[in-house]
Design a protein that fits this description.
It is built from 10 helices and 23 strands. The chain is of the alpha/beta class and about 450 residues long. A hairpin with a 5-residue loop joins strand 20 and strand 21. Helix 8 packs across helix 10. The chain is extended and about 100 Å long. It binds thymidine-5'-diphosphate and magnesium ion. The site of thymidine-5'-diphosphate has 15 residues, from helix 2 and helix 3.
């Protein structure tokens, strides 16, 4: 092959395939020198390629904490060397949860390093007392510089490391402040890599922040293996641990806890946790079998309507989407001829759970009518189903699971969307095609 030469300007580095008297870039005269272009030898490929049959299956070694609600969310225990992000609003209980988990690992003979940049070691000691922490194998540090933390990890060589929180940690070479997006990403990348290489399971705590100012956990979700969020309303005691990403298990599971004086307590029997017969026995209230992950919870949906002589009536919804409630009220006015122009409407889900899926449409609608008519639905009835704009009641996921659980809890009648196949269950099933049928059945 013919050798290809180029001419390069010795002053500014401009290159051209043809010799030029004057450089068009730096405008100097007679500066071009001829250079031979060496063709780079193609490197031999070093990429390792294997056939499927040659791949070795990963031997998953799992450690259980025996905090069942946590183990289940993790997919049956912590896979050794997993990197876990734990997000949640400030004050929701992330540090409390992790301290309890540290204690649980310690009891199983695992060495844990708890790095707390968020709180002083005295504060941690106070919290530890409160939750009855014994933690013989747990070491603490309030170091926030990643380089120093890595040295500590090397020295102690723990099985589990907890970083509380990512927003307080920093790499000194990076000029930006702790908690900024660049620090957050670099810190997470570097610590996860370090932990992974050393077989350490890392837990990275991060505050969910109101947009702006400091960066939140969303920014680093892609870096870790598992992403957990601890959720709940701060003024109620209920806490839900949810996994939204898990390389080693399903993301369908939730863990339910209650924040008490002595830390987070597991709630094992969730189905009847949120309902009480006495309030279900009054107008404006109905039971709803809610599915969260793989579990059914019975929630009490309440509505209150009251007369208002003033201009625009109020619509307030807590625990269900405001827009869904608006749609339901429009269906009520349009399909059932109910006049709500002079009525304030309040809808509430008892217990601090937010229902995101539309299967609560039917019970919400029934609760509103129950309040309007001042007629109770009763504690033995459950209802679920999505409501469409034409007033039709639509099928939702998990029908059989909801019905089975309703039967177990002693409910007698279930008002449901038309079923695909009717199974013999020891509970009276009333299939309703539209809102008119549902209202007719319940209120006659
Ligand atoms: P914390 O774990 O500090 O939240 P985070 O780390 O997510 O910011 O939890 C703080 C709240 O939990 C605080 O308001 C007090 C409450 N709490 C209890 O109710 N009981 C307890 O045993 C503990 C340790 C905390
Ligand atoms: Mg904290």
């Amino acid at each position: 092959m013919k050798k290809k030469n180029v001419f390069i300007c010795e002053v500014c580095g401009y290159t051209t395939p043809k010799w030029l008297g004057r450089c068009p870039q730096c405008e100097e005269w007679d500066t071009f020198r001829e250079m031979e272009v060496k063709k780079e030898k193609k490197k031999k490929s070093t990429m390792t390629i294997k056939m499927f049959s040659e791949l070795e299956g990963e031997k998953e070694e799992r450690t259980k904490t025996e905090i069942e609600e946590f183990d289940r969310v993790m997919g049956g225990g912590l896979v050794v060397g997993t990197q876990v992000l734990v997000g949640g609003e400030p004050g929701i209980g992330k540090s409390t949860l992790m301290l309890q988990i540290a204690d649980a690992f310690s009891k199983r003979g695992k060495k844990v390093l708890y790095v707390s940049g968020e709180e002083s070691l005295t504060q941690i000691k106070m919290r530890a007392k409160r939750i009855g922490f014994s933690g013989e194998n747990v070491f603490f540090s309030s170091e926030t510089e990643v380089e120093v933390v890595e040295e500590g990890l090397e020295k102690i060589n723990p099985s589990v490391a907890i970083f509380d929180s990512l927003q307080t940690m920093k790499i000194s070479e990076i000029p930006s402040l702790p908690g900024t997006p660049s620090q957050l990403k670099e810190v997470t990348q570097r610590l996860t890599r370090f932990c992974k290489m050393n077989g350490i399971s890392g837990f990275f705590l991060a505050h969910v922040t109101k947009e702006g100012i400091i960066a939140g956990p969303r920014l680093v979700e892609h870096i870790v293996d598992t992403v957990l969020y601890l959720e709940g309303e701060r003024h109620t005691s209920l806490r839900i641990l949810r996994s939204i990403k898990n390389r080693f298990g399903s993301t369908n599971e939730v863990g339910i806890f209650e924040m008490e004086e002595g830390g987070l307590r597991e709630v094992k029997n969730t189905s009847s946790f949120f309902i009480s017969e006495s309030t279900l026995d009054s107008p404006g209230s109905v039971a709803f079998p809610h599915i969260e992950g793989n579990r059914v919870f019975f929630l009490e949906i309440q509505a209150l309507t009251s007369y208002t002589p003033f201009g625009t009536p109020r619509r307030v919804s807590m625990g269900v989407d405001y827009n869904r409630v608006s749609i339901l009220l429009a269906v009520l006015e349009n399909k059932l001829g109910v006049d709500l122009k002079t009525r304030d409407v309040f809808v509430n889900v008892v217990g601090g759970i937010f229902i995101k899926d539309p299967s609560a449409d039917l019970p919400v609608l029934l609760a509103v009518i129950s309040s309007l008519k001042n007629k109770k639905i009763g504690p033995k009835i459950v209802a679920f189903g999505e409501i469409g704009l034409t007033g039709e009641v639509r099928r939702v996921a998990g029908t059989e699971k909801r019905l089975l659980e309703a039967k177990k809890l002693g409910f007698e009648i279930a008002i449901v969307p038309p079923l695909e196949k009717t199974k013999k269950l020891d509970i009276e099933i009333k299939e309703v095609k539209n809102v008119q049928e549902a209202v007719e059945f319940v209120f006659g």
